[in-house]
Amino acid sequence: MQQATFDSEGSRIRWTEVPGAEPVRVYLHGLGSMSAVYHAHIAARPELAGRRSLFMDLPGHGISDRPRDFGYTLEEHADAVAAGLGEAGVAGAELIAHSMGGAVAIVLAHRRPDLVSRLVLTEANLDAFPPPTAGSSGIAAHEEDAFVEKEHARVLRAVGPLWAATMRLADPRALHRSAVGLRRGSEPVMRTILEGLPVDRVYLQGARSGELAGRARLEATGVRVVTVPGAGHNVMFDNPDAFVAAVAAD
């Protein structure tokens, strides 16, 4: 386990690491998740083995610290990841990022282009104010204190055992603030940033999730959109073969 300070209070972002060749692959998780849980089985596949790989947990999640006074906006998450990559001596990394982690990766590529050479995004949030059915919208609909004191336990029961297994390890206040930050989006918004990034960009959409909004425009700007058969939001679990193929196709 490695760590780096990301705020003035000495809070640390942490990650587990597998040694290997460059360029580095950095795996980022979604809201209420953990990177190793969602991606270690992918990085271990023969097609991807042998590369240096970092499984980084965003602030408030997993093994990273959860400071009470941190904002947990997309920009702040991105800056924390940048601090981790700086400590790890990483530049020009491939970011393999899921859901909220994908939004963070897009913002990071915008703020610190020196750190990112490629994006593989799995159902990343591209727009502010996602539909009410989105997990982040359900969490952000509550006031912070009400969520922490009352709604958190209900949400853990409602999301099912797979997501709850990692969500229960996230700090409830950090979870809520991250959801609010994700719902607010970035400036410029993530979709606009993604369309203009001068790096290789792949977007994985689970077929069971429906058609990706704005797909034609994304493809017109050079984003390779892949619809993954038999998969929903968690493509890396539902169709790992297709997920590995997308990551390996560099």
Describe this structure in words.
This protein is an alpha/beta fold and 250 residues long. It has helices spanning 35-43, 74-88, 100-111, 135-140, 144-158, 161-167, 172-184, 190-196, 215-220, 235-238, 240-248, and strands spanning 2-5, 12-18, 21-28, 51-57, 93-98, 116-122, 200-206, 224-228. It has an 8-stranded mixed sheet, with helices on both faces. Strand 5 (93-98), helix 3 and strand 6 form a beta-alpha-beta unit. The chain is globular, with a radius of gyration of 17 Å. The protein starts with a strand and ends with a helix. The relative contact order is 0.16. The mean pLDDT is 96.
Overall structural class, as computed from helix and strand content, comes to alpha/beta
* Topology, number of strands: 8
What separation lies between the terminal Cα atoms? 28 Å
| Series of secondary-structure elements, N-terminal to C-terminal | EEEHEHEHEHHHHHEHEHH
Number of helices: 11
Strand proportion = 15-25%
- Rg from alpha-carbon coordinates: 17 Å
Keywords:
11 helices; 8-stranded mixed sheet; alpha/beta; 20% strand
Put the structure in a nutshell.
This protein has 250 residues and is an alpha/beta fold. The protein contains 11 helices and 8 strands.
